[in-house]
Structure formats: C-alpha cells, structure tokens
Amino acid sequence: MPDITINGSDGQFSAYLAIPEGGSGSGVLVIQEIFGVNRDMRDHCNRFAGEGYFALCPDLFWRLEPGVQLTDRSDAEWKRAAELYQALDVDKAVGDLQVSLAHLRNIEGCSGRAGSIGFCLGGLLAYLMAARTDADCNAGYYGVGIESRLDEARNIGKPTILHIAEEDRFVSRDAQQQIRDGLEENANVTIYSYPGMEHAFARHKGTHFDAEAARIANQRTAALFAANL
Asked: Which one of 90, 169, 200, 227 is separated from 143 by 20 to 30 angstroms, measured CA to CA?
C-alpha cells in the first residue's frame, strides 16, 4: 500500500493509503494517535481495506516533523510523542483532515461516501470532524480532551459513536461524565463505555491492548460504517 502526497491549504503532506482489492468502495479516514502514522495506524488502514474500504491516514505532524512513526514501548518515544502532541495546532489538524476527506472522496473507485475514525488524539479529532465537517459518520476511540469542547456538540448532525475506556488515565471519571452529560441530548451520538479498560485498549500490540474489548468496539464501528457508508 502506498504513501501518497496531499496538497493542503498551506503545504503538502503525506498520507498512507490502503486500497480495497476490488478497487471500489466507500472511504474511511483514519486519524492518528500521538505516535504518528505508525505501524498501528497502517494496520488499521489495511484492515479497513480488507473490509472493502479505501482507508487514508494523513500525517498530522508534518508541520512539526514529517514522517513520525513512534511506538508506546520506550520512555524516549513517549516523551517525543508528548512534545508533538503539545505542539500540534488542533484547528490546523482539522483543516488537514477536511482536505484529506475531500481527497479520499475523489479517489478513483471511491463511492464519494466517507467517514472518520480516530484513536487517542485522533478520537478528539474524530469528534471535531463530526462537529465541523460533512463526514458521513464518525467513530472516536478514547478521545482525549473532548470534555473541553462540548460547546461544539450541537453541531453534530451525522451518526457518531464514542468509545470510552472507563479506567482511562488520560480521561478522568469526571471528564467521562461531562462527555456523557454534554452529548446526551444529541440523538446522533452514541457513547459506549468499556469497564476495566485502560486508554488504548484497541492499539495493536500496545501495552494496554485488550482483544475482547477491541473486538466489541470494532464490531460496533463496523456496524456504523456498514449502515452509513
């Protein structure tokens, strides 16, 4: 599967593209964690391609350090990932994702329908995609910082699901409840909680990967995509 180049509003950036074997299908925009477009993100894309979707994962750190591919296996990598996360301009990242969504929809063979899925940092960005763009549906996994942006919840008009890890060290129980309270009146949003699960329970080969919780979450996401894409 190739890395491609996307022309953004203020520069070019790369993205990993996974193409379905049949050469046609809907699109899934895969939104990175703080570790960049690494093996885990590419594996997610390849899985979606295997399910018949065009899957595109853009490099959102390109303004800071293009081509980042970190893991969660060393303190040094965590330190660099945290630095990149803190330096990221979230609004510009959403802009890059909007451009990427348009690019995805215009790929030869794509039906023009496309949704987003994001993990960690990408979980927040998937929520913002739901609030700010015309993505056909959206799924966020253990998004960090959603509780600080609940003023945008009223703008969500397409089916959106959020997967919350109840033991998430980066999203407190109080923050989780704020998210539930802030979104409960929007019928387009469904929230699933995973008791006993830590942050990143769906990260392939990650330190907190849980096969059963990941399976359940991925089945729910698959149903969302099947119904809306």
From this structure: 227
Q: Count other C-beta atoms under 10 Å from residue 224's C-beta.
A: 20
**Whether the predicted pLDDT of 86 surpasses 90:** yes
User: Alpha-carbon distance 27 to 173, whole Å?
Assistant: 33
The residue from 59, 199, 208, 210 that is catalytic is 199
Using the predicted structure, report yes or no on whether residue 131 has a pLDDT greater than 70. Answer: yes
Give the pLDDT confidence of 138-167 residue by residue, as tens digits: 999 999 999 999 999 999 999 999 999 999
Residues 123, 94: contact at Cβ < 8 Å? no
163 is catalytic: no
Whole-number pLDDT of residue 141: 98
Average pLDDT, the chain: 97
Name the catalytic one among 40, 59, 136, 168: 168
Q: Is the pLDDT assigned to residue 50 strictly greater than 80?
A: yes
44 is catalytic: no
Return phi, psi of residue 28, to 5°: -130, 120
Give the residue among 158, 83, 153, 73 at the shortest CA–CA distance from 121: 83
- Single out the residue of 19, 43, 51 nearest to residue 224, CA to CA: 51
Spatial contact of 178 and 209, defined as CB atoms under 8 Å apart? no
Domains of the chain listed by start with CATH number: 3-228 (3.40.50.1820)
Q: Whole-model pTM?
A: 0.97
Long-range contacts made by residues 180-187, C-beta under 8 angstroms, separation at least 24? 182/147, 182/150, 182/153, 183/150, 183/153, 183/156, 186/153, 186/154, 186/156
Beta strand 3-8 pairing with 11-18: antiparallel
